[in-house]
Design brief:
With about 475 residues, this protein is mainly alpha-helical. It contains 23 helices and three strands. Among the domains are: about 20-100 and about 115-140, no CATH class; about 150-330, 3'5'-cyclic nucleotide phosphodiesterase, catalytic domain (Catalytic domain of cyclic nucleotide phosphodiesterase 4b2b, Orthogonal Bundle), CATH 1.10.1300. The longest helix has 24 residues, at about 370-390. It binds adenosine-3',5'-cyclic-monophosphate (CMP).
């Protein structure tokens, strides 16, 4: 594998010329697709390599690389040259030489998923260690891309999907760590960067990557949106640093351990969480308890005398229960109508934070179509998957979950009209900024795109005429 250690920052929105690629010949574990170039932006989005491991041999990682691969320097053993799809076997113990061999008893700990799963151990070690050898060189290739994107993290058009690929699926850790620095929270609260990173690694690992929608990418997107909102003048000038800290923690943890099915499903199948939380805000209560447990496990905030920390975090996460939207919105609307919302009043500030959390959670239809369309496809895929499971077990199919009678356009139209628009209209009254107007503009424009996407091509053509 040939790796260049000094690479200039490459723009992510343009294909890399072939001659540059040939000269660099760089391939990294998590490199941005931009490095591999290609004629179309669509191809830019495709990863050309991957990593896997064999559970029978946990000391070895397999790199799967597309194209002609040549090795230089100490690194992966047994390189394969010339094959169109090369597999390079990497001695994992050499990557992490000071970790020592995998303990024979380690497999016995598998059942304690929440504490010491193989994946969490693997990820956290990988992120906590000082990079060494080939990994260090590989990191440099894509760190340039990530840095370039993070410079624009306050942009409403931030491409979270590309960012996640550029960070090799570690978008949540990378972005949130950066935002803590950016808001000065790490310095102000004297947060231990190692604890912060290990907390974020655990958070990321506790999202289910198999869920099309409720996974760590959604949490990263919500966190990025939260950051954009926190920078709005109404909030930036009135919220305390403690408010901001809690808001970021709530955003990044608000869907922890989401099973990919809704509360109705858990209640109807007699899931233990439904019994535990008495069929009320079942998932949100679980996300909150998971967040508290990971905060404890990491010890991140242990040194801070923040009173009611857990309760305040809980009330932000519980506010994302969509079935309670009208209750929150009515309170917010009343204050706006009476014009008596005072950001000096802690209870009013907290209500505003809850509304901010709700906005961040369901802002995906307010993103630019390029991003919004991906979210609507993902959420529909998750709904339909639940419907498939219900059909398979002879249960009644939940609303919006039947792939035979529901469609993405239909689901989005209802969601936007009844849920998103009422919330963002009030938000716009509260924070009347260019960002708010932009979000509303996308919200009104996106259904038009959706409608066109669902039309047969011939009909779409006739409409254009
Ligand atoms: N684009 C979307 N289309 C339809 N429903 C959505 C969309 N985005 C979010 N939701 C729903 O809004 C809910 C907010 O709370 P949850 O994350 O529990 O589950 C979410 C989805 O059910």
């Amino acid at each position: 594998m040939e790796v260049c250690s000094q690479l200039p920052v490459l723009p992510l929105d343009r294909p890399v010329p072939q001659h540059v690629l040939r000269r660099r010949g760089a391939i990294s574990l998590g490199t941005s697709s931009a490095l591999f170039g290609g004629p179309s932006p669509r191809q830019l989005c495709k990863r050309r390599g991957g990593v896997s491991y064999n559970s029978a041999d946990q000391a070895v990682l397999y790199l799967h690389l597309l194209g002609d691969v040549k090795q230089r320097g100490p690194g992966p053993s047994e390189p394969v040259r010339g094959a169109p799809h090369s597999h390079v076997k990497v001695d994992y113990q050499r990557f992490h030489c000071h970790q020592g061999p995998v303990r024979p008893g380690a497999r016995g700990l598998k059942s304690h998923r929440r504490r010491l799963s193989f994946q969490r151990g693997l990820k956290s070690r990988h992120l906590r260690q000082r990079p060494s050898g080939p990994q260090h060189l590989l990191d440099q290739v894509y760190n340039c891309q990530v840095k370039c994107m993070l410079d624009k993290v306050d942009s409403w058009d931030f491409d979270i999907f590309m960012f996640d690929r550029a960070t090799n699926g570690n978008g949540l850790v990378t972005l949130t760590f950066h935002l803590f620095l950016q808001l000065g929270l790490t310095r102000l609260f004297r947060l231990d960067p190692i604890k912060l990173r290990s907390f974020l690694v655990m958070v990321q690992a506790d999202y289910h990557q198999r869920n099309p929608y409720h996974n760590s990418l959604h949490a990263t997107d919500v966190t990025q949106a939260m950051y954009c909102f926190l920078r709005q003048p109404k909030l930036a000038t009135t919220l305390s640093s403690c408010d901001m800290l809690l808001a970021l923690v709530a955003a990044v943890t608000h869907d922890l351990d989401h099973p990919g099915v809704n509360q109705g499903f858990l209640v109807r199948t007699g899931h233990h969480l439904a019994a535990l939380y008495k069929n009320s805000s079942v998932l949100e209560s679980h996300h909150w308890r998971c967040a508290v447990s990971l905060l404890r496990e990491s010890g991140l905030l242990d040194h801070l005398p923040i009173t009611d920390r857990s309760e305040r975090l809980g009330s932000l996460i519980l506010a994302t229960d969509i079935s309670q939207q009208n209750r929150y919105l009515a309170r917010f609307r009343e204050h706006l109508d009476r014009e008596d919302l005072s950001m000096a009043d802690p209870s009013h500030r907290h209500l505003v934070l809850q509304i901010t959390m709700k906005c961040a959670d369901i802002c995906n239809p307010c993103r630019v179509w390029r991003l919004s369309s991906q979210w609507s496809s993902r959420v529909t895929a998750e709904f339909f998957h639940q419907g498939d499971v219900e059909k398979k077990h002879g249960m009644a199919v939940s609303p919006l979950c039947d792939r035979l009678s529901d469609s993405t356009a239909h689901i989005q139209a209802g969601f936007i009209r009844h849920v998103v628009e009422p919330l963002f209209r009030e938000w716009c009254r509260f924070s009347c900024t260019s960002l708010s107007h932009r979000m509303l503009a996308h919200l009104y424009r996106n259904p038009y795109h959706l409608h066109r996407r669902d039309l047969p091509a011939s009909l779409d053509h006739s409409l254009q005429i």
